[in-house]
Each structure stands twice: as structure tokens, then as C-alpha cells.
Amino acid sequence: MDYKKIVSLLAVSAFALAGCETDEAEDVEQSVEDVAEETEDVVEEGAEETEESAHDIIDDIGSDLDYTSPVEMELTGGSWSEDGYIFTPTDGEATINGTATANEDVEEVFAFVIEDGVVFEKPEVTEGEFTFTVSAEDAEQTFQIGVSGEDLWEVGDEADAEELVRYEDVIIPAAQAE
Prior knowledge:
Blueprint: H1 2-19, H2 23-50, H3 54-64, E1 71-76, E2 79-81, E3 84-86, E4 93-102, E5 110-115, E6 118-121, E7 129-135, E8 141-148, E9 166-172
Parallel strand pairs: 3-9
Antiparallel strand pairs: 1-4, 2-3, 4-7, 5-6, 5-8, 8-9
Helix pairs in contact: 1-2
């Protein structure tokens, strides 16, 4: 790519000088050709040293795109927003249902509910499903619900949702006055 830019700039300069009809124009044209040949030689040498073509590099990138998480998670029963999944309480409670699907490398899946950096609850994952129910409060509540193939924490432990394989933000709106 740099080669093309250099040659383009040199070619434009050569044409500009050629338009002036001076003896320098011929020297510039020769210089342009010399620089182009030298640049091409350097590019070819670099390609030989790496022994990898552009197609090989692109093919390698494509294999990175096939990444799948060792544990996938899906939450149901809420509505998605940019801030997270919103679960509206009914009868004073909000229930979050989730599924966790693990690949063959993961023996057991653990679910965690984190509030303000502390593990609030560890719902049991049974046959790939888990449920978390919380009572509605007068103020909005925000949780991170996530899964991992490792038992990372116990209830009450400090936790960082970024350590989970997969997590989502969950928002429980404030309870409505009846």
C-alpha cells in the first residue's frame, strides 16, 4: 500500500514538472522510475522474508472469527435496551429465566448474580437452565447475571463480572405504588 502511494506521488510530481517543459522533468521521470523499482524490490524482499501472502493472512483472520464461547447464555422474559435487559416486576417480584449451553470442554456451568460488585446469589443451573427471582423495591435495581465454567465465588464475595465467560446487565424497575 505504501508502495502505491509513493509511486503515485512521484508520478504526479513527474507530470507536473513535465508540464513545465524543462530538462529537470526528464531527470525527475528517471528518478521516479528508479525509486519505483527500488521500492518494488524492497517490497518483494519483505514478502519473501515473511513467506506469507496476503491471502494467507486473510485466511488466518477468518479462522479467528469462528470463536465461540465455552459457555453461551440467553436470558428470557425481559426486554432488551441499550442499558441491559429490563424485567418488569409482576405481583412484587421479577423473575429472570436463563439458559446456559456449554461446549464439550466444560463439565459444569455456574451462574452468578452480581450487584454492586458483590455476588448477590448463585442460582443453580439444572439441565442448562436457571432462574433468579428478586423482590421489587422502591428504587430501580441493576444486576449483572452471568455464567462460567468455573465456580469462581460464593454469595457475599466481591466479584467482577468481566471474569465471567458471558454476562448481561439486568434492570428491575422501581415498584409501582398501588
